[in-house]
Amino acid sequence: MEAPRSKTSAHVVDEVLQKIERTRQARRHKFYLRDERITLSHGSGGKATHNLIEGVFAPAFSNPMLDVMDDSAVFCVNDGPKLAFTTDTYVVSPLFFPGGDIGKLAVHGTINDLAMAGAKPLYLSAGFILEEGFPIEDLRKIVASMAQAAREAGIAIVTGDTKVVQRGKADGLFINTAGVGQVIATHDMGQNFLRPGDKVLLSGPIGDHGIAIMLAREALEIETDVESDTAPLHTLVEALLSSLGNAVHTLKDPTRGGVATALNEMAMSSEVSIGLEEHAIPVHAGVRGACEILGLDPLTIANEGKLLAIVAPEQAEAALQIMRAHPLGREAALIGTVQAEPPGMVFLHTDIGGMRVLDMLVGDPLPRIC
Amino acid sequence: MEAPRSKTSAHVVDEVLQKIERTRQARRHKFYLRDERITLSHGSGGKATHNLIEGVFAPAFSNPMLDVMDDSAVFCVNDGPKLAFTTDTYVVSPLFFPGGDIGKLAVHGTINDLAMAGAKPLYLSAGFILEEGFPIEDLRKIVASMAQAAREAGIAIVTGDTKVVQRGKADGLFINTAGVGQVIATHDMGQNFLRPGDKVLLSGPIGDHGIAIMLAREALEIETDVESDTAPLHTLVEALLSSLGNAVHTLKDPTRGGVATALNEMAMSSEVSIGLEEHAIPVHAGVRGACEILGLDPLTIANEGKLLAIVAPEQAEAALQIMRAHPLGREAALIGTVQAEPPGMVFLHTDIGGMRVLDMLVGDPLPRIC
């Protein structure tokens, strides 16, 4: 996957190279927080979220574990096993949507963050913020859904907390889940472990979660059968790690900000370039159709049951077979290659033979997606 | 501390005994959730919170670690050290108050939950829900306060998450902190470990936090210098455990619901009775005055830097001395005794020589105290 490819005209190459240079310039000052007030974009998981994290949280809380900016912190307590620890808050709207609800999402999301650290999820906490007047019947449904999701994934919710705020001071219900898992990966992984030549694998079609939420929320007259892909990915991760070991260089679930944001984060952390083949990226027809109508890019839409695996090239085919043999990876695909230059950039080789810079999500087309 | 005492008339004794029987009857159906919608009382930490937990969360999530209903779950991963894991969400209003802010509170609160499990706090997660339009300058202040609290306590905030909701869908900012600590207690502790004869120690004056919040919130014309007592109690716990070991039967920070609720929980879990001496319970003059004006009982008001220690009688004096030698326990006091009968009840021997049943907090005089 050399860039630029022969089909690309000299003019387009020039344009892309100029854009690269502009982007690089911009990234010298990357993640500068100019805002005086919080905007919805700060919750997008994309560029504005990074601005906020780099501008406020990272400098204040700085420590070696946080600074790697992976989704989980990894540590040992004394001579104990290596543990992963993560947290996520869920503010998805609506609370119930095709394919799931906020409870299921809150359990799967934290399981997945632990799994991406190469950990077997063990224990979850659950913190609830309830709005005065919230129907207890709905709370029961959500809690039952969490309990079922935990049971099915073989984990336990072991500690919790409940707060209530006055009517109008929250939006029904918010949930935080934190999780502890045992790291089963016997090698170091992370978004700074990409190497030129590595292959980019995606476990299945993208955009289902985000589009399902959007269609559940808006009174759009788009008829599709798109459902959230919310699912616990830890057994898929176990299958990959137990067979491929240190050939797995990093794992990432492309949630908020989508595949585009996740790969940009990796490219920056590892100081490599990533080239994607658009034709290879699986997207369900319903999602593709909705994205076309709404002017959205499936690559920036949130997923809740998909993972990106960056693997050594000699194990790419084996990884693909392992994924496809797993119920959650049947439509897995090899979608791209890691290159040395230019560092920190992601490119998309388009279906029509062009090439474009794929940036992380800017703005927030779909607030409160998770 | 025999009940009833000689000063108490036969009439009063009768009345108390009848009330005991009524309370026992009621407790056969204790914690029955009748409500159809969430009310502010469900967030009080008192009886309605228990109704909600026992009616919704406990049956759905049931597992041995959760079922003990301590503030932290305790477990080992493989042959590793014993760990404590806890979570708390903070929705305090206002965000800044005399003696602290929501950030400091969120760090101290989770440190304290770990400490009460006999654990040395190690790592915290931080999950933020931000309302669109929230001033970033205020966020910076809160984050700086969290960072300082963590630094002073010798712990690290290692993982986090940020979500944003639309204007009007939250109240400025909510924070969840979860925490992991290493259990340093070499014996089992918990609210079901109280034994008749045990002494009840309190590390200092009660009600400061709740009253400070209330006075910061309401435009009450009460002039006091009451400040929140928010403080990290882990070094006080370490001092007690390292000297007294298994003479410490349980530790509990009386936050939402106050001392009354905390002791009722213990009495029920351990199936013992607790008798308190009102005159021995330290209360700052400002808090006492505010409570009198507002018709509140300091025993049901939240504290954020105090602990209750239930210790074997022969070590009570030693425990008191250890507390008083610590900066956060200078005004510690022995406030009561554990008795066998009647199980599940807490009594207050009043200053004027009477005795009354002290129930857990009912209703919520001070919503969003933490």
TrEMBL record, chains A, B:
CDD domains: HypE. Belongs to the HypE family. Residues 195-342 form the PurM-like C-terminal domain. Residues 70-183 form the PurM-like N-terminal domain. One of its GO terms (biological process) is protein maturation. It comes from Ktedonospora formicarum. NCBIfam families: hypE (TIGR02124). This is Hydrogenase expression/formation protein HypE. InterPro entries: HypE, PurM-like_C_dom, PurM-like_C_sf, PurM-like_N, PurM-like_N_sf. The gene is hypE. Transmembrane segments: none annotated. The lineage of its organism: Bacteria, Bacillati, Chloroflexota, Ktedonobacteria, Ktedonobacterales.
